[in-house]
Amino acid sequence: MSTLDLIDIQKSYGIVTAIEPLSLSVANGELVCLLGPSGSGKSTLLRMIGGFETPTAGKVLIDGVDVAFDPPEKRPTAMVFQSHALWQHMTVFENIAFGLKLRGFGKAEIKRKVEAGLSLVGLQDYGQRRPSQLSGGQRQRVAIARCIVLEPKILLMDEPFASLDQHLRDRLREEVRQIQKTLGITTIFVTHGQDEALSVADRIVVMSMGRIEQVGTPGDIYASPATPFVAGFIGDMNLIPVTVAHGRITMGGIELAAPVADGPAMLAVRPEDIAFAESDASTGGATVLRIVNYGSYFKVTVALESMEWKVQAPKSTRIPEGAVLPLSIGRYQLFRDEQVVFRSEPA
User: Fold this and answer.
1) Strands 254-257 and 263-269
2) How far apart are CA 236 and CA 272, in angstroms?
């Protein structure tokens, strides 16, 4: 069993607070993504887990043992960095073997472990090459193998694919997910890419300004964001200021149930939960401003009561720019004072 528990962990630099006190538990074999924009504190939190930053307060428990003030080499963790951090004067084999030598393994055991690591990342025939002879994706595979052969209890990954092109990123994250499942290793993965987090994580920790905004499965985070920040950061979301009156929201021909107190609120609707209805001059409608072809669907920008909305329309849709059409809304939710006050039932 390899579990991670952060208890009231905090990090300050003088009077500047980088991480507000937070707690998080990660189960054995779980892959958890720390997701947030630049400056949200996700990499600082990862570095405190790995020992590269010392917390101002709190505990870092790995299998129940507090390692908060142990140096990196004394922790049962290994980190894959964005920059690969390979030694250019060493071969691939020597790079992967370096940490094993420091730990006192014999030559035969080192050879066995390195070859197994190379096989796991699909580089069986690359042991005698130099890093300069490898592609970016291959260098990152070497960095992953170098960590895996140490058999850490916790694998840490700090935006490992950020420098790679989109196609290679997609392929490598699928490979890393498969390796992680095969080994059953508890993994913390930092990214600012929502697609990356949604595709690989068992759970996502959404961070902002050194705080945890929400923790949940990718499906829960996407379907039921807990705050306006999460709603706007994960996927496309229409965030529209509205006024609730007598338990209803009425605007531009749209009428929605809103069983909350009267007053201002924030309406949140995914583009895929909006559809164009049959034209009806009596109900008004939204004016089509722009249509962008995304291959499998159209992203349509419309104007409704001076607000722009995004609508995801099927490829069969035939709508000219400038058309005025009513909208129908399926699933939606309301925020007030940064909290969810109402979620509609799934359509």
Assistant:
1) unpaired
2) 9
Helix (H, G, I), strand (E, B), or coil: what is residue 1? coil
Tokens (6 digits) for 336: 């007030």
Domain regions of the chain by residue span: 4-230, 242-343
User: Which residue from 236, 233, 230, 276 is spatially nearest to 253, judged by alpha carbons?
Assistant: 276
With DSSP H G I counted as helix, E B as strand and the rest as coil, what are the percentages for the chain, rounded to 5?
Answer: 30, 35, 35
Q: Which CATH superfamily does the domain covering 4-230 fall into?
A: P-loop containing nucleotide triphosphate hydrolases (3.40.50.300)
Please say whether the structural domain 242-343 has been given the CATH code 3.30.70.360. no
Sequence-ordered alpha helix ranges (H) in the chain: 42-50, 92-102, 107-120, 136-148, 166-183, 194-200, 218-223, 228-233
Alpha-helical (H) ranges within 266-313 are none
What is residue 267's three-state secondary structure? strand
| pTM for the full predicted model | 0.90
Rounded Cα–Cα distance for residues 274 and 270 (Å)? 7
Inter-CA distances, 314 with 83, 237, 291, 322, 333, Å: 40, 17, 12, 18, 23
pLDDT, tens digit, 9 for 90 and up, residues 125-152? 888 899 889 888 888 888 888 888 888 9
Residue 133 DSSP symbol: G
